[in-house]
Amino acid sequence: MWTNIFVWLKKLDWLLLLNILFLVLFSISALYSLNMQQSFAGADLFLRQFLFTVVGFALVFLLSFFDYHWLKNYYKIILLVTFVLLLAVLFFAEPIRGMTGWLEFGGQTFQPSELAKIAIVVFLAKYFSEKDNSIDNWKHVLITGSIVLIFTALVAKQPDFGSAIIIFMTWLIFLFFTRISRKQFFIVLIGVLVLAAVLWTFVLQDYQQARLISFIQPEKDLLGQGYNVQQSIIAVGSGQVLGRGLGLGPQSQLNFLPEQYSDFIFSVIAESLGLWGCWLLLALYLILFSRLLLMAKKLGDAFGAWLVIGFVIYLSLQVVINIAMAIGFAPVTG
Hints:
Shape: globular
Order of helices and strands: HHHHHEEHHHHHHHHH
Helix content: 55-70%
Strand order of the largest sheet: 1-2
Strand content: under 5%
Radius of gyration: 21 Å
Distance between the termini: 48 Å
Number of helices: 14
Number of strands: 2
Structural class: mainly alpha
């Protein structure tokens, strides 16, 4: 028994685990700084995040003993369960700030859209690992694109445009790394642009359009659509080089910064820890993604490699979009 545990410990990528631990510490530190303000509605988030961290690392330990290929064998069930949960959200979830994105289970709420991101990664990894050599067949592009569009539409209906964009972009970037010809990929991009134009013209409401374009000139509506991004930019800039210190940032502590524990958590980190803290955070993410890609390269099977690459795509999109929103380089999608 002890020999098996020793062998297991020796096989672990300790640099990857330590890197993840430091990223978690960034998260906990940001929530701790918010926890200092007694008026903060989510003051218990620090404790909850700490407990989730402990549970998360325990799950990492347990799941490391399982063969990840079971995901490949049960991908249809994973997709079906996720699809049902997304439908349940639309029919049974109670709106929270105008969005029906959460289901309650056991006294806790969770977002099926987050499960949808994982389900799509598993599906694409399974599909492309088997069809990559013949992916230039338009049938495979249409099959994967249709399934992804269904999940994207269900998430956008909540409406959660941020998650919908991540799900769709995950497929698009997946497609780019397959053996599809550059000509075919260019045709797909043209189709995406046409679809975006149709959605903009006939689907999106006026307030949604205003929210998407407000990042270009937020100063024109500082008390309306441009308020969130403007306050975020102020928070990021006020951190300067060394930061204000944990719990000392005026934007986050005085509640000028909206959605500070979710959409604009990067702004809290920038205000508290400054430019050096932001660079350290980005360096940790860079190490994380490089270690994962190295892992994908070393794996002996196509499904495992695509699975790791898929999670790198999904996580990097989350990071890029969140940071870009916080500094005004992308619209605030939620």
